[in-house]
Amino acid sequence: MCNPTVVNQYYEAEVVSEYVIRGNTAVLKCNIPSFVADFVRVEAWVGSDSSVFQPTPDYASVCGAEIGCDECECLVPAVVNQFYEAEILTEYVIRGNTAVLKCSIPSFVADFVQVEAWISDGGETHMPATGNYVVAQYYITEAENEYVIRGNSAVMKCKIPSFVADFVFVESWVADDGQVHRHTAATDNYVVAQSYEVEADNEYVIRGNSAVMKCEVPSFVSDFVTVEMWTDSTGGTYYPNSDYVVHQFYQSRVIDEFVLRGNTAVLKCLVPSFVADFVDIVEWVTDDGSFSASPTDNSDYVVNQYYEAQVYDVFVIKGNTAVFKCNIPSFVSDHVEIVSWEDTKGTRYLPPSDYVVAQRYDVNVMDEHVLRGNTAIIKCHIPSFVADYVFVSSWVENEETEIFLDNSSSDGKYLVLPSGELHIRDVGPEDGYKSYQCRTKHRLTGETRLSATKGRLVITGECGQAE
Fold it and tell me: Any idea where the Ig-like domain is (predicted)?
């Protein structure tokens, strides 16, 4: 028996009439229903005289008459050639400065058109330089005076104009007497030596306890200074060893656990929190030492515990879809998954690659009250059980005009927010006669659905009376 994964569904594609001025280019569109749009593509166009138009691998138009075959099909280009003009705006520049001219290309072809050359009035052609697309621009750097106390370190800064700061770096410094200071391999030290002092404050500690001394390093050099050793007042030197841990006494405890005979018991080792990050359990030992268990003896650290999964009866109307749920005990639900279902006849059902259960839902649009001249907000009410998978793709006005998220009305009257709400600006009396429906799309199944109800605007005046 064949179990197809694709459901064949009847659909019709439509071609809407297009109005075009004689001599212009016309573009026809094939409207494919949204519920199959992801799986259907246009392979060819057929004219009323049975002429077949197919896309060609190259983008040239080839017809039968041109190749000496009157009965051959006419192949149309995949690219629509459209007339456009590039413009160069006048630029004003001070004499002696650098001028930058820009070629303004219409936006509808900007992704496919590039500038190959510039031609002056005198017929001179200026081609782009090979590999050098940088416009040389004049700039001046400055080194301002710095005030410093005698004997201290001075830091001079070279100020580079911001419009070239990303491309200019300092190669050397030149003094008034002509001395040049460079970064050489021998003196590859970019650190300014600055005097600092470290301190060790007194610490108070009870006799017999552990004491921790801290070396306070000034914050302006703390990222570059490390403690190499400690020296006491008697001249003793203490170097850091491979163990940087301060040993501190602690005790672990095991609390009594009450359990029914025959059940599984779980004992816990309570480790003090101040060492819990550094202490782990290596072994369990009984009081008489007759039994010990180490985690290293077995790679399985899971306590096997008996559980039962249950499936309850589900009542459903004949012809509808039934959904069974497998109830797994909560104490093992994080570690147990369903691998298959099996009926009373022994037939096994494995999960398909598609885990989406198609469930019917309806979206609604309610009437909204708004004052004349204000902005109205219409919301698409989506049921909560599918709210995570359904989003608003567009709004339909009077069952004719469709308003999309990415191309709201050009006059700014309508605006669809990413949340799906429809904003209507400057509400007038004429808006109260229009109806609005939202069109939603399921993220997983791709199903689109129009709202079951139509929303209208109830416009009120300043006195609160509906118009």
Answer: 240-339, 352-451
